[in-house]
Amino acid sequence: MAGALTVCRKELADHLGSRRYVVLFALILLLSTLSAYQGTEYIKNNPNAGFMAIFSGARFGFSFTYLMVFFGPIIGLALGFDAVNKERTSGTLSVLLCQPIFRDSVINGKFMGGTAALSLLAASTIGIMCGVAMPILGFGPGFEDALRIVLFALLTIVYLTFWLALGLLFSTVTKKTSTSILLSISTWLFCSIVISIIAALVANYAVPIQMPSGPFNPGAQGTQEYRELMQRRTTIQMNIQRISPAYLYNEAGSSILGTMGGSFGFGELGRGTPFQRLELTQALATRWPQILAIVVGMVVCFAATYMLFLRMEIRPEG
Amino acid sequence: MIETRELSKYYGEIKAVDRLNLTVYEGEIFGLLGPNGSGKTTTFITLMGLTVPTSGTATIGGYDIVKDSRKVRKIASMLPEGAGYYEDLTAEQNLNYICQLNDIPKPERERTIKDLLEAVGLADNAKMKVEKFSRGMRQRLGIAEVLIKKPRVALFDEPTIGLDPQGTKEIRDMMFRLNKEQGLTVLLSSHLLYEVQQTCQRVGIIRKGRLIAADTIGNLSKKLSKWKVTLELELAGAGPDLIREIKGINDVMSVDQEGSKIFVHMESDRTREVSEAVIKHGATILLMRPKEHSLDEIFMEYMKEGDQ
Prior knowledge:
The structure holds two protein chains of two kinds. By secondary structure, chain A is an all-alpha fold.
């Protein structure tokens, strides 16, 4: 364990000092603060909206959830994609493993270091958002809202850790960082953009809706039949998008926050979805499969990395 | 100190290390000599637990390399070929990381690092980033890293590869000093015969994963030499008649001519008869001396034998 902590400390120090981390952190912080500020504007104009609306600047373009849906994968993957193979090719891994530590200390330490860096990013961003909003609004979150924020922060950390674990897996499977970075970028594009396009296409194909020819007929859209078709379409689309952990996070995150949540991908951008604020317990009860799926995904990725790393042959030449 | 029994590592059909039986005694410098791809590096990484042997066993200081791998790594160090460092850290920071991994308590760390940097001659570069280091400096930093844990055995994989003569000499002197002053057992691998000859007390010759000989250089030479005595000659005014005459002398097995030099291989010492023949033919002796077998020849000869 001592070995793992040493590796963890070094990894964390490396992350915090790395340009990659600092740039992403700054970007997220800037955008989040902006969205929180926009949220306060919204709250001022809508006295009914609660404190949580600072996380859903969605009406103005983006919310914190949306930022995490879109940038979350890249943050997690960026901290993981070269963690193992870079050390392998540079020859530091063989030096490291000649030291009297257990081999799993190295991979555990790397995971712990990355998780610490991500936790810091998520927690401080959410904290700063609240800190920006409170003086402007003149009131803070109540007890339930505070609890929601804490749970949401935890969910965000787990979600980011999932991407970190996937990045670590990529860096263990591949020998070159150029391969793992390609894998990372394509996964990111697939999970945050491509999947929503595919879902829309499939839904369109599976449930064709014939548009009445001729001039626009509002009556046709109001029929029971039309509504049912639209409903089926949405269900298909949603279920396909659930392949992406980013979508699962979006669902779970907005329910926990009790906000309308962000839009997902391009398919839904700007389209208002009917919204009903759930009680916290209710939210957790309905969204536990999503939360569980993210946790299981993370555990599976890390377990696979762990197994592979322990069996790996470390040759000095990589 | 190091003992392998039928140690084998196969990669599919390829036998990288094949039933290797190697013994390295405490306090000696042992050289593992072999061409590229003969299994030196695989042997080293198997000993250090970076990969698992296919079959066979090995111990270092009495610890099994598979079951007690961590204990092995407590008493044994390795400098891998092309060892890497954290480029954006300074020499000091690199050593500090290794110190931490070796559980060296904080108060001792600073001293240990300072002493080691001094010992390898990098005291002035302690605060320099490793990315600016030359090859020789890197290798010296590697030796410092090896010594952090105060090992009883050190494995050096091709320690002087790519270094200039000055750097090579420094590394070699360092190994001698450690061996003498601290009783460090050294196992080094090389494909450079000269280096092994200069550094090692005993030599093992490895070929296609098999150890084909292990002994002192003197003994290896004796075992091998087909000819008891070889005479090296350099003559002025030697004609074919003379060569024919030398060949006719009793016990002379063969005569080789390489440029201006003539090598006479004999079953027993016939130096007297050879010099008489030279004088009889009116040639002048420029050089005449008995020749020892260099490691080069031994090595080539063993390689040839292995092929048969």
